[in-house]
Amino acid sequence: MNFGSLFKNLANFQFPYTIESEPYHSTPLWDLYRGQRKKDSHDVTVFKAKCDGAAGSNCDELIMHAMHMIKVIRVPGICPLLDVFDSNGPDALFIVTEAVTPLSTALGEAGIGEAGLLLGLHDLFRLFQVLEPLFYIGNLSLENLFVDKQGNWVLFGLECCYEKAPEKFDRFKFKDYIKMWRGLHGFPPVADGAKSLDPSLIDAIALGELIEALFEAAKVRIPSDWGKYVQGLAQGRMTLTGFIQRVEQTATWRGNPLLPIYDELKLFHIKDAHSKLQIMQKFEQYYFRGGTRSLASQFTPGFIGQLIVPELVECLSWILNQENGLIVFNRTLVKLLTVVLSLVVEAREISELSEGMKDMLYLCSKLTDRQIRFVMLIFLPRLLEKFPKQLDFSGRIFPFYLQGMLDTDATLRLQTLKTIPYIIGELTERQLNNEILRSIAKTQVDANEEIRMWTVLTIVEISDRLSGVSNRDGVLATIYTKSLRDPSISTRLAALYGLKMSIGIFQVEVIANKVLTVIAPSLLDKDRVVRVRAKELFGLYLAKLEEEASLQFEKGEGEGESENESSDDHTAFLQRFEQGGYFARDLADIVDKFMTGLSVSPEDNLDSFGSTAAYGGFSTMSGDPTETLLGSGRWATPPASSAEPAEVVPEDDDAGWDAEDSSWDSTTTTPQETKPVRSSILSRPRQPQSTTRTAATPAAKRKPSILAGARRTPPAAAAPARGEKSILSRRPAGTLTATTPAEPEEDDWDSAW
């Protein structure tokens, strides 16, 4: 059809509707267009009459008859009529109704189940009970049935409908209309004497065939207690009224929990607030007790999203706006909130949240009632999953949501914690990296064991999204370290699981410096399962570290010659160390070099002992670790000569070590210089002792030294020749004073390692 000609026909008047250019459904007599009313954007369906000449000029008669009957019959169950435009005859006939969808389309796309079929047949039964005493429908079929926005089944297309009044009924024209209609829709022709043309049986037979077609299209078996009635109806052995009465007494019909209140739900829009609340309370009872919850996905599209949910939201809003409504209707409010949230997340037809639904959710999130907050937490993940970015969660819900992490009730804290992974996508970077992490830090030390375990599992879920944290590796390592020390086995296992799932996050430097040291204590855990898991995890991280080390080694093979020479020196050093006794041989080398430096030839100028040049051989030990140890002067000025040798007083073996340790000055190194090796007692002249003895330091208070095993006094040197002064005789009589005050030594093993 040329849609341009449609508007040419409308040129004589202002058409108050906007219409799409292409029809969304077509029948042999009608094209269906989606449209909107211009003044309020109300959705409508426009039926445009058409006739392709298949049945001659008589199809115009069918269309005009249908237009006449839809004006006459204005009862519930007939497609709601809004406007009719017929000024230009059948070629430009427009019938405007409420927005509808063909039932055949709904059956194929929505997957209506048995519960939805029963509610739809309930609509048809009520319509037939009204029409049967007054009219013959004549052309009842699946092609004539539609579904409105609220899921109600409605009838359109009364091309064969006739009043039963004798003065208005024309039997011959009625049969002609039926034959013509069946021919247009592809039904097989019928003989004049067939039951399907008998006015008293035609609607009953058509209903039997319709029920069989409905269950077949929905791919649902006809209920077993309906079988004989449907078969008798299709064969013309039962009247329409008798069939409805028998079916409504079957267990299938009476077992549907919504049918008893279905009529009240259809009149919900004309009830006052208290009556609506009473109806919703009945619906809530059937929803929880009658099995409706499992049937929610089987209803006709529109029944849940456009009829039940909006009315439930209206009831909840009315309760919340009442003074003391939360106290008076507390139990009702909690139950109705549970029903509406359950329906919203389960109904496939609801694809977006209405403004009324959003306002109700924002209002409920502010309430302090624990039951309401718990219900909100239960359905919050599914709401955010189904309706992403539709709620202003970060601005209007999150400030109140975070209070659940501090609630005194452990159940509420736990449920709040479990929902954190689902709200990450709705939060800002500041909320995620600051407020959420601070709250999790508190729950990690919660008194409840289950909360501590779920804290670790929550961190595992959101760890890959903490990209805004500057020190993410360190934060995660700290969290897992703390959890591995938890007394609860489940928390420790959760920490090991977290480390396993985070293996791709940690850098190799963090693995070497932190992660392996975190896992290592778990290898000695009291619980066998923890030990086994820790061993497996340790192997995974060690393998990753070895893989990175092999890559670094391969990269180092291509370096320059200086790197190779350095590697050769280090290799020789390691080979020397692996031969065993390294510490003893190194100490012996130091002693030899020291003794060599003390040997003085007769030609040496003994008066220049205080200068560095007097040490002779000390300056030739470049490149040796002991160069700094032996070649650096220990006094600021050379000691003065003594007129007579100092009196030799016996002393305790460890007195010199104690004095040495107390006068040692620690040297602070920088990354560019090597920390000086701490000198031993053998590298400096022995300091003279005072003739007045002090009490020896108790052994328990003496500081241990790394060279404790070598605290032996060197053997006495040979007596000097006549006229030759001994090197020991040049010691001053007085006590030497260091140029800087001695500072106590600290065992800073962390900086050393």
From TrEMBL:
Residues 638-648, 708-721, 732-742 have a biased composition (Low complexity). Residues 664-673, 680-690 have a biased composition (Polar residues). InterPro entries: ARM-like, ARM-type_fold, CIK-Related_Protein, Kinase-like_dom_sf. Residues 649-663, 743-753 have a biased composition (Acidic residues). Residues 625-753 are annotated as: Disordered. It comes from the Eukaryota. One of its GO terms (cellular component) is nuclear pore. One of its GO terms (molecular function) is tRNA binding. GO terms for biological process: retrograde vesicle-mediated transport, Golgi to endoplasmic reticulum; tRNA export from nucleus. This is Protein kinase domain-containing protein. It comes from Huiozyma naganishii (strain ATCC MYA-139 / BCRC 22969 / CBS 8797 / KCTC 17520 / NBRC 10181 / NCYC 3082 / Yp74L-3) (Yeast). The gene is KNAG0H03470.
